[in-house]
Amino acid sequence: MTGIYVHVPFCLRKCPYCSFYSKPYDADTASRYVDAVCRNIAAYSYKGINADTLYFGGGTPSLLDAKQIGSIVEECRKVFLLDTAEITLEANPCSVDEEKLRGYRAAGVNRISFGVQSTDDNRLGFLGRLHDFKTAVKAVETANAVGFENISADIMLGAAGETCKSLIQTIDTICSLPVKHISAYMLKIEEGTAFDNDNIRNLTANDDLMSELYITAVDRLDMHGLKQYEISNFCREGYESRHNNKYWTGEDYLGFGAASHSFFDGVRYCCPPDTDAFIDAPVQPREVTEESVNRGEEYILLGLRLCKGISLDRIKCYFGRYAAERFLALAQEFSKHGLVKINSENVSLTPQGFLLSNGIISQFIDAVIG
């Protein structure tokens, strides 16, 4: 089954740490954008593609009203069937109310992800968020009251003034709300963002503190029954993000909208980050980013993001017996330092290993191709 991703690039105000493509919200542009998304989805009619996830990301998808979201969902149902689909909408807590949330639920959205980020209003202000924590609580509780049983919340680690104690308070408070899933992201200063300056770097967590915060988050979320299943993602049993899992397990997904990405039939491609060009084009522009994906390398690169890790048998199938032996030998070295677990021919990273995942994964890839 294929996953469908719809990028909604509109924001009321861009967060200073965000490097994703977005544009200021304008009602007329948003209306024309929704029409263009539906037109592009319709172009896939009769291609026989079935999907079981639909994800509205952004930007701020909750700036679209329920009728607009519903029109996209309905077009996807006609074209991709969406059999027993997980349909996720990212939402800013200050951009929803009871009427809007009821409308989204009636339109078929059955999973909602709120950008909560912190329980501390000063920290929310530092992050440039438009909501306070009281607003976030109301949004989560209202979503639950109108029928959203699958609710996710994002939290940000390492903002100015963050300590392990304050992070524990944030986690304890959010876990007292009716949430089934939490994404815990480490604040990273991205080039070209408003946060890209030394003053902000000096205010945010350094590497040592960030490591402590991350391990604290893993342990505290586990204590609340939210088990880690990916570097940044935690959930109660049965509430993994089915759509995001497609990215990490190498399944097909189709992206619609400006700055959306796709992986289909072994090819990676994107739609350029240009809202006007997307709206005006009869069919969205397509730029190939990777024409021939190395499935073996990608299996290592993406599979080691998951707590379940990767199979040595599949490494052997992709690279051969001797490469698999080199891979296992390296894994055993990493395990001595508490960075890797080896269980029943399966290799996975520990939370400490996740902190060094880029370097570890690079060494694993070098081992199998060397």
Description:
The chain has about 375 residues and is of the alpha/beta class. The protein folds into 2 domains: about 1-245, Aldolase class I (TIM Barrel, Alpha-Beta Barrel), CATH 3.20.20.70; about 295-370, Arc Repressor Mutant, subunit A, CATH 1.10.10.920. Helix content is about 45%, strand content about 20%. The protein has helices at about 25-40, 65-80, 100-105, 120-125, 135-145, 165-175, 200-205, 205-225, 240-250, 275-280, 295-305, 310-320, 320-335, 350-355, 355-370, and strands at about 1-10, 10, 25, 50-60, 85-90, 110-115, 150-155, 180-185, 225-230, 235, 255, 260-265, 265-270, 285-290, 310, 340-345, 345-350. It has a 9-stranded mixed beta sheet with strand order 9-10-8-7-6-5-4-1-11, with helices on both faces. Strands 12-13-14 form a 3-stranded antiparallel beta sheet, with no helix packed on it. Helix 6 (about 165-175) links the parallel strand 7 and strand 8. Helix 1 packs parallel to helix 2 and helix 2 runs parallel beside helix 3. It is globular, with a radius of gyration of 21 Å. It comes from Ruminococcus albus.
Q: What is the fold named in CATH at topology level of the largest domain?
A: TIM Barrel
Any idea what the CATH superfamily of the largest domain is called? Answer: Aldolase class I
Looking at the overall shape, the CATH architecture of the largest domain is: Alpha-Beta Barrel
Task: Please estimate the helix content.
Answer: 40-55%
Question: Biggest sheet: strands side by side, in what order?
Answer: 9-10-8-7-6-5-4-1-11
Helix/strand-derived class? Answer: alpha/beta
**Termini, distance in Å?**
34 Å
Largest sheet: 9 strands, mixed
Total number of distinct structural domains: 2
Q: Can you tell me the overall shape?
A: globular
The portion of residues forming beta strands comes to: 15-25%
- The overall pLDDT average reads 95
InterPro entries: Aldolase_TIM, Coproporphyrinogen-III_oxidase, Elp3/MiaA/NifB-like_rSAM, HemN_C, HemW-like, rSAM, rSAM_sf
Family: Belongs to the anaerobic coproporphyrinogen-III oxidase family. HemW subfamily.
Subcellular location: Cytoplasm
GO molecular function: 4 iron, 4 sulfur cluster binding; coproporphyrinogen oxidase activity; metal ion binding
